[in-house]
């Protein structure tokens, strides 16, 4: 199954086009590598997804083409969920 489709059917991302955009922006990793939306996903794969200031890491447990809403959360297991600190891009001039 394609990564963008898995993200959508598992309800980790609301729309498949948004899942593809996240992958194209380099915000989704499959194992240790940045993944494309077309990357194949298999049971046991570890996915890391960055949403704004949050990163979630999940393990793929099942693959289903059209799961019901209540089945979607059984497709993966959350391994970690962390809040990312915003990088301060404002520099203060010390000479003032």
UniProtKB/TrEMBL annotation:
<comment type="subunit">
    <text>Associates with stalled 50S ribosomal subunits. Binds to RqcH, 23S rRNA and the P-site tRNA. Does not require RqcH for association with 50S subunits.</text>
</comment>
<feature type="domain" description="RNA-binding S4">
    <location>
        <begin position="1"/>
        <end position="62"/>
    </location>
</feature>
<dbReference type="InterPro" id="IPR002942">
    <property type="entry name" value="S4_RNA-bd"/>
</dbReference>
<keyword id="KW-0699">rRNA-binding</keyword>
<protein>
    <recommendedName>
        <fullName>RQC P-site tRNA stabilizing factor</fullName>
    </recommendedName>
</protein>
<keyword id="KW-0694">RNA-binding</keyword>
<dbReference type="GO" id="GO:0000049">
    <property type="term" value="F:tRNA binding"/>
</dbReference>
<dbReference type="GO" id="GO:0072344">
    <property type="term" value="P:rescue of stalled ribosome"/>
</dbReference>
<comment type="function">
    <text>Key component of the ribosome quality control system (RQC), a ribosome-associated complex that mediates the extraction of incompletely synthesized nascent chains from stalled ribosomes and their subsequent degradation. RqcH recruits Ala-charged tRNA, and with RqcP directs the elongation of stalled nascent chains on 50S ribosomal subunits, leading to non-templated C-terminal alanine extensions (Ala tail). The Ala tail promotes nascent chain degradation. RqcP is associated with the translocation-like movement of the peptidyl-tRNA from the A-site into the P-site.</text>
</comment>
<dbReference type="GO" id="GO:0019843">
    <property type="term" value="F:rRNA binding"/>
</dbReference>
<dbReference type="InterPro" id="IPR036986">
    <property type="entry name" value="S4_RNA-bd_sf"/>
</dbReference>
<comment type="similarity">
    <text>Belongs to the RqcP family.</text>
</comment>
<dbReference type="Pfam" id="PF01479">
    <property type="entry name" value="S4"/>
</dbReference>
<dbReference type="InterPro" id="IPR025490">
    <property type="entry name" value="RqcP"/>
</dbReference>
<keyword id="KW-0346">Stress response</keyword>
<keyword id="KW-0820">tRNA-binding</keyword>
<keyword id="KW-0648">Protein biosynthesis</keyword>
<dbReference type="GO" id="GO:0043023">
    <property type="term" value="F:ribosomal large subunit binding"/>
</dbReference>
């Amino acid at each position: 199954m394609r990564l963008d489709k898995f993200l959508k059917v598992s309800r980790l991302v609301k729309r498949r086009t948004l899942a593809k955009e996240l992958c194209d922006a380099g915000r989704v990793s499959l194992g240790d590598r940045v993944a494309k939306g077309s990357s194949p996903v298999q049971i046991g794969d570890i996915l890391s997804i960055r949403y704004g200031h949050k990163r979630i890491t999940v393990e793929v447990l099942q693959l289903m083409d059209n799961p019901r809403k209540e089945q979607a959360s059984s497709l993966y297991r959350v391994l970690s969920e962390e809040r990312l600190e915003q990088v301060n891009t404002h520099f203060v001039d010390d000479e003032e």
